[in-house]
Write a structure and sequence with these properties.
By secondary structure, this protein is mostly helical. The chain is 50% helix and 8% strand.
């Protein structure tokens, strides 16, 4: 089970165990930035899986440079065009090479992910690899899992993972605080470039 973080794993592990399925958690998330955030989420998952007796396999790959190079041309669609496939194809590769008969992902628990697009990526990987995609709409237990995660004192991240989602987290605040500041002491007749947009100065009014 590709695992993005400890809080998202809570309901997924619980619900699969209730079905008699024991998931092996697989950490591969080169989309999480900066490194301090990556390390915090990884280490929290280590502690949680140990606590609940779940197996965890970690494949280290902090890939800020590689990630940015692959998404910069279409940042709004980075999840569908790159991020989902990158993480899940590595999960499927590991599953196929190590004798696992199925794969799934904790990303399916989040109501904030592009669920149908994510599902399609998984279905395509199933066709390509022959490893069964174990689909579950874990979203029904999202709140339950989050509540349990808070009760357990798990680290609760505030954004999806990449630096662009971190920016999205503050977008309204950034837009609210940004305003055009006139260039003080510059005669009006010297402001032609400013008025045309060439010399507009932006400051954060924090």
């Amino acid at each position: 089970m590709h695992t993005c973080c400890a809080p998202c794993s809570v309901y997924c592990i619980d619900s699969l165990r209730a079905e008699g399925i024991e998931p092996t958690c697989f950490w591969y998330n080169p989309n999480i930035h900066p490194y301090t955030e990556y390390k915090t989420r990884r280490d929290c998952l280590k502690e949680y899986t140990k606590k609940v007796g779940a197996e965890l396999i970690i494949e280290e790959d902090y890939g800020l440079d590689e990630f940015c190079k692959n998404v910069v041309d279409d940042i709004p669609n980075r999840c569908v065009n790159y991020c989902y496939f990158k993480r899940l194809s590595e999960t499927v590769r590991f599953a196929a090479e190590n004798g696992y008969d199925a794969f799934t992902t904790t990303l399916l628990v989040s109501p904030y992910q592009k669920h149908e697009e994510l599902k399609k990526v998984c279905e395509e990987l199933e066709k390509m690899s022959g490893v069964k995609f174990l689909y579950r709409d874990f979203r029904v237990g999202f709140r339950e899992g989050q509540d349990k995660a808070r009760e357990a004192g798990l680290y609760m991240q505030k954004y999806c993972g990449c630096i662009f989602s971190e920016e999205d987290r503050y977008r309204k605040q950034i837009e609210k605080h940004q305003r055009v500041v006139p260039l003080e002491g510059v005669p009006r007749e010297s402001r032609a470039g400013e008025e045309s947009g060439d010399r507009t100065r932006w400051e954060a009014s924090c």
